[in-house]
Amino acid sequence: AVVSTQSTGAIAIAKLRLSPTHPKLLEIYRLWAGKQEREMQLDSAVKCHLALGDPERAVLVMLRRKDRASLEGAAEIVRIAGLDGWGEKITVMIAELSLEED
After folding, report:
1. What is the pLDDT of residue 48?
2. Is 18 helix (H, G, I), strand (E, B) or coil?
3. Residues in Cβ contact with 58 at an 8 Å cutoff, skipping those fewer than 6 apart
C-alpha cells in the first residue's frame, strides 16, 4: 500500500509539473498501467491507457471484467474514439451476458 501511495503521488506531481505529452509522464503512465493490470486494478489501468491516448488498449482491459458496467463503458469508449470493428463484438458480449442473467 505504501508503494501504491508513493506511485500515485509521483503521478500527481508529474501531472502538475509536466505537459500531458511529456515523454517522462507518458512513461510513468505506461509503467503504472502495466503494474495496475498485473494487480487487477483495472479501473486505474484503463485511466492510464486513456491518458496515453490508447483507447483500444483501454477497451481490452475493460473487457477482461466481463460485467455489464465494464462492457457498456467499453462500448462508450469505442463510440467516442471511433474504433472500428469493436462495436459489434461488444454488442454480442452484452447480449450473451443478458442471456446468462435470464
Report:
1. 93
2. coil
3. 46, 49, 50, 74, 77
Distance CA 102, CA 89 (A): 20
The DSSP output letter for 65 is T
pTM: 0.82
Joined grid coordinates for residue 16: 502538475
- Exposed (0-12), middle (13-18) or buried (19+): which is 58, by Cβ within 10 Å? buried
Taking 3-state DSSP, the helix, strand and coil percentages for the chain, each rounded to the nearest 5, stand at 80, 0, 20
* DSSP notation for 22-39: -HHHHHHHHHHHHHHHHT
pLDDT at 6: 62
Q: Which residue has the cell 458496467?
A: 69
- What is the band of 76 on the pLDDT scale with cuts at 50, 70, 90? very high
d(CA 45, CA 37) in angstroms, rounded, equals: 6
The DSSP output letter for 21 is T
Residue with cell 509539473: 17
